Amino acid sequence: MAAGTDDVYKLNLDDIIAFPDTAHVPLLPPSPGESWIILAEIVENESLGRPVFRVRDKINGYFIVAFYTDDPMEDAVAMKCKIGHVICIVSGMRHTFLDGQSGYRIEDPNTAFVLPCSMAKLKEINARLRKISDDGEMNKCNACKKPAELRCAKCQVKYCSAGCQSSDWKEGGHRKECPVIAKLRLWNRTDWG
């Protein structure tokens, strides 16, 4: 998947190379310069002494994600692992646990993070960003659609004024979407190798 730019958004979350589902996770570790992100919504907390979550990927495949970091409880809390949020596993390799369940074992907290939204919301935001780009409106205000030069410091969405940005943050829902948009825009500029 070719990388997009700040002004051209073409990220495809259905790309099975960059965002593999349970049926397309590579069997071998990534080569140098290669990576992928496994996206899965947390559907159940199965923690008993160690953080373990049942998750559902984008094609409704279910598996578990278990934390085996140096401080697993603290890491799961720091990542804000909550039911309904999307956990992102960087270049994850399948693991079969002792009880026979299949999933992912998080050993380094830097190889996973959580987006504060559902899978449906993630796809909806991604589709909206693609439409804005396809319609040539990436340089318009996120709130009023006027030409814009100012940017949100975190996600780079454009605004025509501080007033529009403040209003969109408070009433337009940008506060909840900002961290998700920031990650999507980063992925849009990534060459997945």
From TrEMBL:
<dbReference type="InterPro" id="IPR002893">
    <property type="entry name" value="Znf_MYND"/>
</dbReference>
<protein>
    <recommendedName>
        <fullName>MYND-type domain-containing protein</fullName>
    </recommendedName>
</protein>
<dbReference type="Pfam" id="PF01753">
    <property type="entry name" value="zf-MYND"/>
</dbReference>
<keyword id="KW-0862">Zinc</keyword>
<keyword id="KW-0479">Metal-binding</keyword>
<feature type="domain" description="MYND-type">
    <location>
        <begin position="141"/>
        <end position="178"/>
    </location>
</feature>
<keyword id="KW-0863">Zinc-finger</keyword>
